[in-house]
Amino acid sequence: MRHFLSFDDFSKSEILEIIELSKKIKAEFKQGIQIPYLEKKILGMVFEKSSTRTRVSFESGIYQLGGYGMFLSNRDIQLGRGEPIKDTAKVISSMVDMIMLRTFGHERLEELAKYSSVPVINGLTDLCHPVQVLADYLTILEEGIDNPTIAYIGDGNNMANSYILFSAKMGIELRIATPKGYEPDTTILQKGRELGGNILLTNSPEEAILGADVVVTDTWISMGMEEEKGQRIKDFQNFQIDRNLFSKSAENSIFLHCLPAYRGYEVADEVIDGERSRIYQEAENRLHVQKGLMVWLDQHRN
Ligand code: CP
Ligand code: NVA
Q1: What does the DSSP assignment read for 175-216?
Q2: What are the residue ranges of CATH 3.40.50.1370 in the chain?
Q3: For position 302, what pLDDT does the model report?
Q4: Which pLDDT tens digit goes with each residue over 288-297?
Q5: Which residues contact 254 (CB under 8 A, 6 or more apart)?
Q6: How far is the C-alpha of 87 from the C-alpha of 79, rounded, in Å?
Q7: Residues known to be catalytic
Q8: What percentage of the chain has pLDDT greater than the value 90?
C-alpha cells in the first residue's frame, strides 16, 4: 500500500504514471464518459485548515469516480478537541477506503499515515502541497511546454518545497527567488540537491525569472502566518510579479498560482488576469490529477 505524502516517496516514472492516468480520466470525463473506477469507495477528507479547491475537487472527484467523499472538519470531529491522531487514524481507516488530510505540521500527516490501514493523501501541510504541483505540471504539459524552466518567486513555503522535490525528481530546471530569511526548508533543499536537482536559489526575482517558461508565485501569508502579515508585506515588497517583471520571462511563458491569490501583493492584476495566466485551468486540473492519483493509489493496494 502506498501513501501520497510528498514527492520524496515517488519516482519519476510513478509520477508520470499518475499524470498519464489523470490525462486519460480527464479526457474521458470531457467526453461525458464517467467510469466508476472507485465504485462505492469512501474518501475521508479531514480538514484542519480552510479550503475551497481541495475540498471541492476531492469531493467532486471521488463522486465522479463512483465513490463518496466524507467531509470531516476539525471543528466537528474529536481530533479538533485533542483526540490523538493515532486513534483517529485507526478508527477512520477501519471505516473508509482512503483518507485525505489537510493540516499544519507535516508530522501530523506522517503520524496519520503511520497508523492508517488505508492510503493517505497530503491535502497540504505547512511543509508541502504536492497535489497542487501535480495539477500545475498537468497544466504545463497541456500548454505544450515539455521541458520547462520554472521560476518560483515569493515565499519559500509549502509550494516552493514541493516544487523543489518535484523538479529534482523530474529533472526540471527550477529557480527560486525569495527575500532573505524566507528561503525554502533547508532539509528539502538538501534533499533536492542530493537528488541531482538543478535548483537555483537567489534573492533576485529578476535573476530567477529571466527566460523562464513557467512563472509561479503564491501568497506571502500562508495559513497560520496571519500575525506576520505586516512584516511580510514589507519584506516582500520587491517580489510582486507585475507586468515589468513578467516581461523578462520567455515570450510564451505562462503564469501559475495555486490560489487563493491576493492581487496587488504577490501578483499584479495585469499578470494574473492577463493573457498568459492559466490559473483557472490549473485549479480545474486539481480535480483531474487527484482522480488519477486516487485511482493509482487504489491500484497499488495489495
Ligand atoms: N490551492 C489550494 O489548495 O486551494 P484551497 O486552499 O482553496 O484548497
Ligand atoms: N501556501 C498557501 C497555499 C494555499 C493553498 C498556504 O499554505 O496557505
Answers
A1: EEE--TT-PPPHHHHHHHHHTT--EEEES-HHHHHTT-SEEE
A2: 7-129+286-294, 144-277
A3: 72
A4: 999 999 999 9
A5: 139, 140, 143, 145, 213, 214, 215, 276, 277, 278
A6: 9
A7: 102, 129, 132, 218, 258, 286
A8: 100
Distance linking the first and last C-alpha atoms of the chain: 6
Q: Please state the CATH superfamily assignment of the domain spanning residues 7-129+286-294 in this structure.
A: Aspartate/ornithine carbamoyltransferase (3.40.50.1370)
Percent of the chain with pLDDT over 70: 100
Tell me the Ramachandran region of residue 259: left when phi exceeds 0, alpha when psi lies from -120 to 50, beta otherwise.
left
Instruction: Give the model's pLDDT for residue 291.
Output: 98
Average pLDDT, the chain: 98
Residue 34: which residues within 8 A CB-CB, separation 6 or more? 28, 64, 65, 66
| CA 78 to chain CA mean position, Å | 27
Looking at the CA of residue 157, tell me the nearest atom of ligand 2. Answer: 1
Distance from residue 160's CA to the centre of ligand 2 (Å): 10
258 lines ligand 1 (CB under 6 A): yes
CATH class as words, domain 144-277: alpha beta
Q: Which protein residue has the closest C-alpha to ligand 2 atom 1? A: 222
Does the reported pTM lie above 0.85?
A: yes
Residue 204: band (very low, low, confident or very high) from pLDDT cuts 50, 70, 90: very high
Pocket lining: 132 vs ligand 1, CB cutoff 6 Å? yes
Mean pLDDT of 14-30: 98
**Which protein residue's CA is at the shortest distance from atom 7 of ligand 2?**
222
Cα–Cα distance for residue pair 140/255, rounded to 1 Å: 10
Grid cell, residue 283, equals 485549479
User: For 205-238, how does the pLDDT look when each residue is reduced to its tens digit (9 = 90+)?
Assistant: 999 999 999 999 999 999 999 999 999 999 999 9
Q: Which three cell numbers stand for residue 221?
A: 501569508
Ligand nearest to the CA of 287: 1
Q: What is the pLDDT of residues 169-181, one digit of tens each?
A: 999 999 999 999 9
